[in-house]
Amino acid sequence: MTNASILVIDDDQDLSMLLSRLLSKQGYTVSTASRGAVAKEQMAGKKFDLVLCDHRLPDTDAPQMLEHIRATSPGTQVIIITGYSEVRLAVELMRKGAFDYIGKPLYPDELLMRVQDALAADGHEGSGPVNGNGAATKTKAPKPGSAKTSDYVEGTGPAAQLIAKHIGLVAPTDMSVLITGETGTGKEFVAKRIHQESTRGAAPFVAVDCGALPKELAGSELFGHTKGAFTGAVTDKAGSFEQAQGGTLFLDEVGNLTYENQIKLLRVLQERKIKRIGGTKDIDVDVRILAATNEDLDRAVAEGRFREDLLHRIQEFTIHLLPLRERKEDIPRFAKHFVELANARLGRQVTGFDDAAMQHMLNYGWSGNLRELGNVVKRAVLLSSDAHITSDCLPAVVLSGAQPVRHGNPTSTADSGTAPVATMGDDLRSAALAAEKDMILKVLERNGYNKSRTAEQLHIDRKTLYNKLKAFGLEV
User: Fold this and answer.
1) DSSP single-letter state for residue 103
2) CA separation for the pair 66, 43 (Å, rounded)
3) N or C, which terminus of the chain has less Cβ within 10 Å?
């Protein structure tokens, strides 16, 4: 997209200036804002094609800014700028409508690639579907002379084989399927495979991200509206049900639907009829429903947030996708696939990982699952100067072997227990060690892993920094 308008929201004035210069040289029109309030004022008076938003701002944060952008300018793409220690939150923001995230330190080639992908996107898809049975990434055509890379790769472990078996069994039927699993495990990919292997494979597949839909627009998106039904309804609009006629409608993060829209959805599933907002006539629909969620809908029913009768309707068959940390036997295969995709995208000829780097990949907890793996591999290919990716091409948090916490704060991490000297427990000293380790990681990332500059900013000498890195098991 030429002459695209980009808003950079970051309170780091130096970084904002660098991004502005970099993007302006590429022909983009760039505005900057150091606070969320200033950004909102600018967005009220001008439409931006893309927003680059730092996760932490003086007066707000990325989740609140994303919610505001989705409500006021649904067509604007959003890329979150964050540290890799916050990747779990960044991936969660992608589920809520962000296009992608990019980790600090920022590299010009990587940033421009993400910006180009976001501006070329045709809607609210993220960085490409990835799944718990295989991996898929939406990419541009390979560069001339490069080998064509398949969009999909199948896992070979027991979990992948079971998912493939379940897809083969349920796809030919017309049963409603609920696909469950953590963010980034690729629920949409499984839905597409079910559609492709069904008798509806030649008909439309329409995906709706219920988590990214502003609540006031969800009814219009699903069921359509008539001209004049509400302010801004200047023409009749067919909703997702009509667009998917004869095919499959995929409702991602279905638990985010309002209670009112849950009632409307239940009526459609029972009667196979819809009524546009503002309309008076019923419209017959022939659509198969596939739904996905990363939350416990049984608990949502118990808490009164989700209708039990609707759950029974969408859960005629269930497929659960395991997180990547529970199927590590497939990590080398998926990583190789992402290397091939990155080579095609970046014009590189990286062949894979050396043994030490792959061991780090296997030890890491992958809180963002395959989506995070794809981003880390793409970044590593970009940074690699050799045929094999080495450990210094990986983010510090991957080198640390940090594992995701199952309960509590979703952005926190716990040590993997892979024999670092400084172990983390529940006492005060352990809490201090965890905070110290987190600070070292953040400063390292901010300085591009320059140890001298990191030691200087931490007010310690290089030898002390090396000792601390060794104590925490950080091979940086």
Assistant:
1) E
2) 12
3) N
